[in-house]
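User: Design a sequence. Structure:
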């Protein structure tokens, strides 16, 4: 399966420029902050899915809430992709299957471990591809991700206008 995220990349560039102008920063000045933000958003996503909470019988958050947490991560990995001039096209295997809880936890851990290694286009592309696969494992189609990204992008613009 081929995914082209060019529209998402273009929209993220516009949002990032707006934020950078408002806060008088450049990409190279916020690289560490973006990596930390990505880490936090990945943790929030893991928490929403509850896949690692073997001690709890409580259900995961709603599909809508999980998707919103997921696209928060898309915003930050896309900004990092822009910094490192990573590609916006990805090939995902056609036989992506749903992971069980244990394997999904391992997948989250792998993504967490890879964040500190994000330093060039290749490492960013590898992380982004794994993140897209995680989205599919969580039950989201590309259309789900695309629509939720643009909905959240509008919210992020509004937040900037309201001095969030």
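Assistant: Done.
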């Amino acid at each position: 399966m081929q995914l082209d995220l060019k529209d998402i990349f273009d929209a993220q560039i516009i949002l990032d420029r707006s934020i950078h102008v408002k806060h008088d920063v450049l990409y190279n000045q916020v690289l560490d902050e973006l990596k930390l933000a990505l880490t936090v958003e990945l943790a929030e996503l893991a928490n929403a899915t509850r896949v690692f909470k073997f001690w709890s019988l409580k259900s995961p958050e709603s599909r809508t809430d999980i998707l919103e947490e997921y696209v928060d991560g898309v915003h930050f990995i896309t900004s990092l992709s822009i910094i490192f001039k990573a590609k916006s096209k990805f090939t995902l295997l056609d036989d992506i299957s749903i992971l069980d809880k244990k394997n999904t936890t391992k997948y989250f851990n792998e993504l967490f471990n890879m964040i500190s290694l994000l330093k060039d286009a290749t490492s960013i592309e590898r992380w982004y591809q794994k993140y897209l696969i995680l989205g599919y494992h969580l039950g989201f189609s590309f259309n789900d991700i695309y629509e939720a990204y643009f909905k959240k992008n509008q919210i992020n613009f509004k937040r900037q206008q309201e001095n969030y």
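The helical segments are 6-23, 31-49, 63-83, 101-115, 121-137, 142-161. The first strand starts at residue 2 and ends at 4.
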